[in-house]
Amino acid sequence: MQPSDGAVYQRLFAQVRQQHQQCASAPPWYSVPAHSTNFGDRFRTDIHGNLLQQEPIIVLHETVASAQSALNFFQTSHPRDEDQASYHELITLNGWILHLVPWSKRAYGAGNSTFGSETVQTNPRLAPSVNNFALHISLETPPQGRHNGQHHQGYTPAQYQALGWLIAQTGIPPARVTTHAAVDRSGERIDPRSFSFATLNRYWQTDRPC
């Protein structure tokens, strides 16, 4: 396997950051780096040497915990593969965007997963996943939803606004925005619960010109 320089994703991030600096209505965006054990390189080839050319996708998640609890986990060293996890961005209840992992790097947001027929195996000891071509964005779960149930009251308008703004600036098309539940092959992931694409689309369209 050949590590990628992640140039496509780095250029995308630089573009969005520039738009953030120029947009008066953009949500607050802070850098809160995850520990380096919780993310890795994107690869140009899979374990069989096949060249990887997937276009980026966005995978939506929820924390099922407070943002602070999630940050504590991501900023802790996890040497074992099975303990490692991260998102690129986390959106708090008040609409702040927390930047955790460089977009040029592979966040460990999904295990055994596929987007349609698109999936990549980069570790012979682990199942194929979408991580190599995904941007993982998580929403902080509201306090009443921090349980294992199927539903909760949903996310705040500030979260939808921040998420809509962020996705709009990437230029990634709606057809390549998905959820952890949709890409998961295990049948165990159901996040983000109680998520409304209709609500997201309203903010997405509103914020697109910015």
Automatic annotation (TrEMBL):
Gene Ontology process terms (BP): cell wall organization; peptidoglycan catabolic process; peptidoglycan turnover
Domain of life per record: Bacteria
Reactions accelerated catalytically: Hydrolyzes the link between N-acetylmuramoyl residues and L-amino acid residues in certain cell-wall glycopeptides
Matches recorded under SMART domains: Ami_2
InterPro entries associated with the record: Amidase/PGRP_sf (IPR036505), Amidase_domain (IPR002502), NAMLAA_amidase_2 (IPR051206)
Keyword vocabulary terms for this entry: Cell wall biogenesis/degradation, Hydrolase
One GO MF term: N-acetylmuramoyl-L-alanine amidase activity
Protein name per Swiss-Prot or TrEMBL: N-acetylmuramoyl-L-alanine amidase
Lineage, top ranks: Bacteria, Bacillati, Cyanobacteriota, Cyanophyceae, Acaryochloridales
